[in-house]
């Protein structure tokens, strides 16, 4: 976190995400580091990227802070309805990403 702050040249970062669930044993430690950095005022918000419901539930067992954001790929061809409902019920904002894809590559259009 401190290295990232140094690289961007600002005293704080607005949002830092823990990208992809990765290995379970390192996930809790990485999240704890983000929680500590937020409590120190280095990060305004912390979140996750590409976490499914099982990953979010496992994280909740050891975390002090609920992720503010879960960034997932979401579009008409990939809707993740259960994940959307789960995040909404926990107050986790969905930040949607979608890879750039020519419309001709879509099967229905």
Distance between the termini: 43 Å
Helical residue percent band = 25-40%
Shape, per Cα inertia axes: globular
Instruction: Supply the number of helical segments.
Output: 4
Elements, N to C (H/E): HEHEHEHE
State the strand order across the main sheet: 1-2-3-4
How much is the radius of gyration in Å? 16 Å
Percent strand: 15-25%
The biggest sheet amounts to:
4 strands, parallel
Please, what is the average pLDDT? 89
Task: Walk me through what this model shows.
With 109 residues, this protein is of the alpha/beta class. 39% of the residues lie in helices and 22% in strands. The protein is built from 4 helices and 4 strands. The protein has helices at 2-8, 24-39, 53-62, 81-90; strands spanning 13-19, 43-49, 69-73, 93-97. It has a 4-stranded parallel beta sheet. The longest helix is centred in the first third of the chain and has 16 residues, at 24-39. The protein is globular, with a radius of gyration of 16 Å. The mean pLDDT is 89.
Spell out the blueprint of helices and strands.
Elements: H1 2-8, E1 13-19, H2 24-39, E2 43-49, H3 53-62, E3 69-73, H4 81-90, E4 93-97
